[in-house]
Write a structure and sequence with these properties.
Layout lengths: L1 H70 L4 H78 L3
Helix pairs in contact: 1-2
Length: about 160
């Protein structure tokens, strides 16, 4: 009987060791995901810098277009054409800004979801640790009771 209990305890211990390994593996995966998110944040920051440079270039182009407007007042058709081009650049810039805001919002949402998922996993791990502790106590109490019964029956 003791051998069966010892075997069961060994099996439970092996399962707990495998569970610990799985938890460590998941922790590594979460760390990798955090690294990827940090890498993506860096890339987005680089893109923000590029967009700011482009914004500056577009502003410079706007000033050039204003100068040309003064020079080319007599050529109204050409001025209208340049105005349309300038408006198109503004729409593109606006679309780029909107896209950038969307990406920022999406990354923020991903960060929040990852934090929530991590919190849930942390809570699950705590619950499992508590369950393991309770299981250890119950196992020890059962072992003591079995030894007491065996002693009472004169089996040991």
């Amino acid at each position: 009987m003791e051998k069966q209990i010892f075997t069961l305890l060994q099996e439970m211990n092996n399962k707990l060791d495998r569970l610990g390994g799985t938890l460590n593996e998941h922790s590594g995966i979460l760390n990798e995901h955090s690294g990827i998110l940090n890498e993506h944040s860096g890339i987005l920051n680089e893109h923000s810098g590029i967009l700011n440079e482009h914004s500056g270039i577009l502003k410079e182009h706007g000033e050039i277009l204003k100068d040309h407007g003064e020079i080319l007042k007599s050529y109204r058709g050409i001025l209208d054409s340049h105005s349309e081009t300038f408006k198109e650049h503004g729409r593109i810039l606006s679309a780029l800004r909107t896209g950038q805001e969307f990406l920022k919002a999406e990354i923020s949402e991903m960060k929040l979801q990852n934090a929530k998922d991590f919190g849930e996993m942390k809570e699950q791990l705590k619950n499992q640790e508590d369950s393991i502790e309770i299981l250890k106590e119950e196992t020890w109490n059962n072992k003591k009771s079995i030894l007491r019964v065996q002693k009472t029956l004169g089996l040991s």
